[in-house]
Design brief:
This protein is α/β, with parallel strands linked by helices. It contains 18 helices and 19 strands. It is globular, with a radius of gyration of 24 Å.
């Protein structure tokens, strides 16, 4: 087995996967690589600020020659946190703990002392990856986090048919609990006395309560990057499971949310499901003899950094290519993952209805729809991606001509091309069924100073941007079609004035300040 750094390991006949754990006396043993580290680690010596999330700042892939290639991780959470938590200006004593997601990640973990991939020659920032057994990870991540908790918080269930909480679900929940226990144990091991621990999102709702039981000295926060379901929908979960989720989050000293309505829904659930004492004026929840503060932190965008990236040569070349493709036509842009909550199909329906009702716009407008496949290991998501592609083809077949493509659908993820699309947008369509925040709605106005924003009222961003966006009911296809028309005919001066205000709101709480505010909240 190759050592990527070329140093720091001595060969040994150590245990392999499935073997009994090693005795405690020897230095840290790598359970699957067959190597022992040549130096003693000093757990929690400097780790005074810890960040825990399912996905980390980097991902590893295996090249054909067996070498590991490191790339920046994907996803909105990673984008928001990477520069502040894994960059040069990260807080002193910072350590990020995440799960190994791929075979490359697991290989990197097994070649690294204690899973600390930054100690194997990789420029990741202080980072520990957890090699959770793939079957446990799959059940925790796909069956519970993404197919249960995500569905509950985004109100996505087709209730005549789902959910069904049976014996299989209970076994899957045990894996979710084990997954959270692995994170809690790693955080407890790594954290210095009195350290601040920032736990992220719906994958890790049980971690704060678990940490509270083993390390009461720690200051712990939990942040939800999704919406929070109202009590009547949250109560779809079995009572004991719902109580476990709520109690897990309440193990934190501070529970953070992206918008006031999500924080209020959480407090409502705590009151109705747990009988907790809620002080809405002070935003506190008291349960089992301790009090958790509830905060609202609407994550924004670093406008300067976004413009620097959007001005690089690869983006410029995409701008030229897209302009050649769209000509002098007005451009409606949407950029999403093919996530069920993003409501892409209804957005396409609205565009189709707009074209049917406004023939004067035929040949004068192009819809750039970038819909990047997401979670294709779940059948619902594969089917949804296929539905997006089918509906897009129907629009092209119905309205396209020899010299006009009314719709350009791209399903290949390309960040530079997405930035280029922002820059040429005249209208930005963001119509999720439900969204914790939605950074697309914030990035677009920064990069396109003349774009009108058509925004779902169910996006968390609507609380900040609603005054200057054209708000729509995401289920109202005709209303969204009307909003697209209103955006296209909006006078240029009004578009630009609105965009200036939208950009100011979008950059009010950039990631560094968002991160710092939560650290401050844990210092009280």
């Amino acid at each position: 087995m190759n050592n990527p750094s070329g140093k720091g390991f001595l060969p040994c006949d150590g245990p392999h996967e499935g073997a009994d754990p090693p005795p405690p006396d020897p230095p840290h043993t790598c359970a699957t690589s067959g190597y022992i580290q040549s130096y003693e680690m000093t757990p929690h010596e400097q780790n005074t600020v810890l960040l825990a999330s399912n996905r980390g700042p980097v991902t590893f892939t295996l090249a054909e020659d067996g070498e590991l290639i490191v790339r920046r991780g994907g996803g909105g959470l990673v984008s928001g946190l990477s520069n502040v938590a894994a960059g040069a200006d990260a807080p002193p004593g910072m350590l990020w703990i995440c799960s190994a997601l791929s075979d490359g990640d697991r290989r990197a973990v097994r070649l690294s002392p204690g899973g600390r991939v930054d100690r194997s020659g990789y420029e990741t920032g202080p980072l520990r990856m957890l090699d959770i057994p793939p079957a446990t990870f799959h059940r925790a991540y796909n069956a519970i986090a993404n197919s249960t908790l995500w569905f509950v918080h985004h109100l996505l269930y087709n209730t005549p048919n789902s959910p069904r909480f049976d014996g299989l679900f209970r076994r899957e929940w045990e894996s979710y609990r084990a997954y959270n226990e692995t994170f809690a144990a790693a955080l407890a091991e790594e954290a210095a006395p009195g350290a601040r621990v920032m736990v992220q999102d719906y994958h890790l709702t049980l971690v704060p309560g678990m940490l509270r039981a083993t390390r009461p000295d720690l200051r712990v926060s939990h942040f939800s990057h999704t919406p929070w379901a109202p009590p009547d929908y949250f109560s779809l979960l079995p009572g004991d499971i719902g109580a476990e989720v709520l109690s897990g989050v309440l193990g934190a000293d501070h529970a953070g949310f992206l918008a006031e309505r999500w924080a209020s829904a959480f407090m409502d659930c705590c009151e109705s499901q747990l009988g907790a004492k809620v002080d809405r004026a002070c935003r506190t929840v008291t349960h089992d003899g301790r009090t958790t503060r509830v905060g609202v932190h609407p994550l924004g965008v670093d406008g300067h950094e976004l413009w620097v990236r959007a001005s690089e040569p690869d983006v410029e070349s995409h701008v030229a290519a897209l302009r050649a493709q769209t000509g002098d036509r007005q451009v409606i842009v949407r950029i999403d993952r093919t996530e069920l909550s993003k409501n892409i199909v209804r957005g396409l329906m609205a565009y189709r209805e707009f074209l049917a009702g406004h023939p004067e716009w035929h040949g004068r407008v192009v819809h750039l729809a970038f819909a990047y496949p997401s979670r294709h290991d779940l059948p619902e998501y594969r089917e949804y991606t296929a539905a997006v592609q089918r509906y897009a083809k129907e629009i092209e077949d119905e309205f396209g001509t020899d010299d006009w493509d009314p719709l350009v659908l791209n399903v290949d993820d390309d960040y530079a091309r997405s930035l280029a699309a922002y820059r040429i947008a005249d209208v930005l369509l963001v119509n999720p069924i439900r969204d914790g925040m939605n950074l697309v709605a914030k990035e677009g106005p920064i990069l396109s100073p003349r774009a009108a924003l058509v925004l779902s009222r169910e996006a968390g961003a609507a609380a900040e941007l609603g005054g200057d966006a054209l708000l729509v009911n995401p289920y109202d296809v005709s209303g969204t079609a009307d909003a697209l028309h209103a955006a296209l005919v909006m006078p240029e001066a009004e578009r630009m004035a609105r965009a200036v205000r939208l950009s100011a709101a979008a950059t009010a709480l950039p990631p560094r300040k968002w991160f710092a505010d939560q650290l401050t909240a844990l210092s009280g």
